[in-house]
Design a protein that fits this description.
By secondary structure, the chain is α+β, with helices and mostly antiparallel strands. Helix content is about 25%, strand content about 40%. The strands form eight sheets. Strands 21, 23, 24, 25, 26, 28 and 29 form a seven-stranded mixed sheet that branches. Strands 11, 12, 14, 15 and 16 form a five-stranded antiparallel sheet that branches. A four-stranded antiparallel sheet has the order 1-3-6-5, with no helix packed on it.
Length: about 600
């Protein structure tokens, strides 16, 4: 008898301990591995057994976040016992070798802040590729390539080069989405991206002689601005893939699975050569390429005070917008205005080509023949590795019918000695010497017919505006205010009914969901038919409600929907009730 009592007592104690352990809140961090290579991927799961708010992930120092957070919720109800788990998942790749500390994450559950324990991760040298042909990592590494094709890895300073980034992939890999994680900055280069439009897949591409699907991802034309070894930052892409797994279905076909892959073109180093100093002409201003040069006049003969244009034009292929054109030199008696620069340039894979010109407007002041001295233009040709100087022809402008330099011009001069001594008075009789002033009659606007007409029209407008405000606008506002008050009363009513239904989870969550809906109906002035989760979040953000508050509201609505089919414990009911009150107060304050 004593043994049976002792046994019963131990059973009761164990049941109590199990109930206590079941009610205990847990929040843990789990990693897929604690030792990995520099080229491997780490999965981190943050798991909690109660629904929490305000999740704060670690800083992930020395890690690159490939994807995440991916949120998943699991509810179950077995033999009258409910269980709940919520997980935030991240996929990371290490940036450097060594011992990396994965710091704490935080979550608020039932008003309490919980933290995970720090985890130390050891990152080693890049591991060798797995040689198992059925391994997913082996499949992706062997069948995906990202290549940067450089036209010239050893250019001269200011010589144009092209870089084409190409993505190669082949069966059994298929790519569903591509995101650009890192783009090269081209800090030491003048760069111009070529618009390629929408990416197209070329099924007949080849990489190292093998057939691949080819996608041209980016085309860039670069002009190095420094000499020496210049680093070309890598392009990094994150790929969403569909790959066959090791599992098979009932018919023996391999089951496809989704995966992520981060791939980079790698860092490139360009050896930029300086331009040779030997043989560099004085007229050289930095032009590199192949060019033609000319000086063109719009007129070669004109009258004084007329104008003509002198055009200095350079056309060809090279760094057209990275050098100065030579200046025109004319005599001081010609007035020269600031030139107008015109660029007609296009950038293709073969480089930058087109023309650059400067148009000078010149106005001569005196007649004469004015020489326009020849102008020299020098450039460096990277193909022949030599400098070349082009000269314009010496031109002459003929200015006629104008004053001569140094002799003042006299116009409309009259010799007084030629004026007749006797002039009849009748020659000046047309000039009226005596004037008579007459008053101008003015009509007063004050108290006139127009005055009373305008005054009466304005008075009628004021009366109509008052009546519209009194009988139309205010009624609409009163109706809107009345609807809002009714909706607020309904929200309070349902919230109080939810409080009374703590003992019945189904009735509680139905009342809580109705309260939330009617609260939004009052605050956002929307009809019940508009209450979709996407519409709710969009309207809350439009009303300047913080993003985390809007997401918290959506999460609470989802909990209510889930709880209809999987009711929670009293602890979760109390937490959801308090959470609803807190969210309503927060939205009220922010609105």
């Amino acid at each position: 008898m004593v043994k049976s009592k002792a046994l019963s007592f131990l059973i009761l104690i164990s049941i109590g301990l199990s109930l206590h352990l079941d009610a205990q809140v847990t929040f843990d961090a789990k990693v897929s591995k604690k030792r990995l290579g520099l080229n491997e991927r780490l999965r981190v799961d943050f798991v909690m057994n109660e629904n929490g708010d305000n999740f704060v992930p670690p800083a992930f120092t020395n890690f690159l976040v490939v994807s995440g957070p991916q949120q998943s919720v699991n509810r179950s109800w077995v033999n009258g016992v409910s269980s709940f788990s919520k997980t935030y998942t991240y996929f990371l790749t290490p940036k450097s070798k060594g011992i990396i500390n994965l710091s704490q994450a935080e979550i608020t559950i039932n008003g309490e802040v919980y933290k995970t324990s720090p985890i130390k991760i050891e990152v080693t040298e890049a591991v060798e590729k797995p040689n198992d042909p059925n391994n997913i990592d082996y499949l992706t590494d062997e069948n995906i390539r990202l290549v940067a094709e450089i036209s010239n890895s050893s250019p001269y300073l200011n010589e144009g080069i092209t870089i084409v980034y190409k993505l190669y992939f082949r069966n059994p890999i298929s790519i569903t989405d591509v995101q650009e994680l890192e783009s090269p900055s081209y800090g030491d280069f003048w760069s111009s991206k070529i618009n390629i439009g929408r990416a197209q897949v070329n099924p007949r591409g080849r990489y190292k002689g093998d057939p691949y699907n080819e996608v041209v991802w980016q085309k860039v034309v670069l002009y190095p601005q420094k000499s020496g070894k210049l680093n070309l930052e890598p392009l990094t892409l994150n790929l969403s893939l569909t790959v066959p797994s090791n599992r098979r279905d009932l018919f023996g076909r391999r089951i496809l699975t989704q995966g992520q892959k981060t791939i980079t073109a790698g860092r490139k180093i360009l050896n930029v050569k300086p331009l040779p100093l030997e043989g560099q002409p004085e007229s050289f201003s930095g032009a590199v390429g192949q060019f033609d040069f000319d000086l063109i006049l719009s007129k070669e003969a004109l009258k004084a005070s007329e104008s003509f244009q002198a055009k200095i034009k350079v056309n060809g292929k090279g760094n057209l917008n990275l050098f100065k054109l030579p200046e025109i030199n004319v005599p001081n008696t010609l007035e020269v205005y600031e030139p107008e620069r015109i660029e007609k340039i296009k950038t293709t894979l073969s480089g930058t080509q087109g023309s650059v010109e400067e148009n000078y407007t010149i106005v001569p002041q005196y007649q004469g023949k004015y020489p326009i001295p020849r102008i020299n233009f020098s450039f460096f040709n990277p193909k022949t590795k030599t400098y070349k100087t082009l000269s314009s022809q010496e031109l002459i402008v003929d200015v006629y019918e104008g004053p001569t330099a140094g002799i003042p011009s006299v116009k409309n001069t009259t010799d007084v000695s030629n004026i007749p001594s006797t002039i009849s008075d009748s020659a000046f009789r047309f000039i009226q010497l005596n004037t008579k002033f007459k008053p101008i009659k003015t009509i007063s606007f004050w108290m006139s017919f127009k005055f009373w007409l305008i005054f009466g029209f304005a008075f009628i407008i004021l009366i109509l505006g008052y009546l519209a405000n009194r009988f139309i606008i205010q009624k609409l506002e009163d109706s809107s205010i009345t609807k809002q008050r009714l909706a607020k009363k309904l929200a309070k009513k349902y919230l109080s009914s939810a409080e009374k239904a703590f003992g019945n989870p189904v009735n509680f969550y139905e009342a809580l969901e109705r309260s939330l809906h009617n609260y939004l109906k009052a605050k956002l002035k929307i009809e019940t038919s508009e209450l979709s989760k996407v519409k709710i979040e969009s309207l809350l953000r439009h009303k300047k409600v913080e993003t985390n508050v809007a997401k918290d509201f959506i999460s609470l609505v989802e909990n209510c929907e889930l709880a209809r089919y999987a009711p929670g414990s009293k602890g979760s009911i109390q937490a959801d009730y308090e959470r609803a009150s807190r969210i309503m107060a927060t939205i009220d304050r922010q609105l």
